Amino acid sequence: MLFPTLDFLVFFAGVVLGLLLLRGRHGASKLFLLAASYVFYAQWNWRYCALLAAASVVAWVGGLALGRTEDPRARRWITGTAVTLLLGLLAFFKYYDFFTENLNEAARVLGADWRIPFIEVILPVGVSFFVFHGISYVVDVHRRDVGVCRRLTDMLLYLSFFPQLVAGPIVRAAAFLPQLATPQPPLPIAPALILIVGGLFKKVIIANELATGLVDPVFFDPASFGRGDLLLAAYAYAVQIYCDFSAYSDIATGLAMLLGYRFPPNFNQPYRAASLAEFWRRWHISLSSWLRDYLYKPLGGSRRGEGRTAANLATVMLLGGIWHGAAWKFIAWGALHGGGLIVERWLGLRDTGTRPWFLRLLSILVVFHLVCLAWIFFRADSFSTAWDFLTGLAGNGAAVAQATAFTASLVAFGLLLHALPPDLPQRPAAALERLPRWALGAIAGAAVLLIDALGPRGVAPFIYFQF
């Protein structure tokens, strides 16, 4: 069930109506929302609802066990066991086939006569996100950054809350569980609608048009296109993935607000970053902060010398690449970012706040092109396709056959969004909030119909559904 569809609109309207009927009954409202979240997830594959529930139970039991002991060794053992079980779920469903294929190939090259069975495991949608939610809860309880969740239903709802279930953002337990403890005051409707409509515009008009009109054809067979198309396709994919994923985050945040819950921001104009370190403070903030707090810092962070810091950065970015997918192209993407962060640190280029404006602008351009280079590996369906793309950029001629003035304008507009004031979309919210609710709904409905009419036919899944 995709957000920009009639099916989801009907589903969400039913959820809102049910919550209105249960107003004043906080416990019943949470149970209803939990049931709705599992119905939502069941639309993808109902069999994996058991996997989602299992991850929730592991995290909940781990938290309860931590709440019953103060012994440091016991707490470390409990945390390690819970995290291992959760990572085991993720490793089996996401990486079994990848490691099986590579181990069998290594055995063939070495002349060994054994093979590991290949069983084609189907990747459950959203597994990376709900597993990371469970891990963050257990570790935060271990660190005493969040209280123990005593109700299983609250933990089930925390991991399954449908606005963020299949593609994030990764909302920390400390930010979400307190909202389940007591009824939340009504949130303003206008900012939520602005986020939803703006997200639909970025997804349907910009991301989908760029995908169908330029990115998909060029990346399908880059050897058939000239340097002009390849260069524009690289820029277009940078804009597409930003608009696609930030759109999901905006829509998820807006939907959560309409249901009475707040999410932290997940993007902050990432392509205006003047260093790779700054890029990761602006891009997919919930994931980058998760990797920082639950992987980089436990490894030692930057506290144990430059050599250890470089190793930690490389490890984190490689694992961040593997998190996105079980493929060597994602490892290459992570390695490029990790290597860039290490070089940037060695050269002392992380602190960009004191640079003159022209040097900062130059830094932004350099960082943007480094990010675009890494995106080529991220988007390509294989290493060979990425290599064809890069060799084409080096010498396929400058002809432009696939790109149009319209797609080039969408790329420019997507980048222009990074030059606008970050709070610009929310500025009309105060004026719109004074309108009657029926007027707000009519405006939002008209905007959605217009976006649907202007966008390409069909509904493309969000890119991060595959992760």
Task: Give a summary of the structure in a few sentences.
By secondary structure, this protein is mostly helical.
Strand-helix topology:
Blueprint: H1 6-21, H2 26-45, H3 49-67, H4 72-110, H5 127-143, H6 152-160, H7 173-181, H8 189-220, H9 227-258, H10 276-282, H11 285-299, H12 306-324, H13 328-346, H14 357-379, H15 383-395, H16 405-416, H17 429-433, H18 437-454
Helix pairs in contact: 1-2, 2-6, 3-4, 3-5, 3-6, 4-5, 8-9, 8-16, 8-18, 9-14, 9-15, 9-16, 11-12, 12-13, 13-14
How confident is the prediction overall: mean pLDDT?
A: 88
Major sheet characteristics: none
Number of strands: 0
**Could you spell the SSE succession in H and E letters?**
HHHHHHHHHHHHHHHHHH
Q: How far apart are the termini?
A: 16 Å
Shape from CA axes? globular
Percent strand: under 5%
Secondary-structure content class: mainly alpha
Please give the count of helices.
18
Low-confidence stretches: none
- Work out the helicity level: 55-70%
Number of domains: 2
Q: Indicate the radius of gyration in whole angstroms.
A: 23 Å
Assembly status: single chain
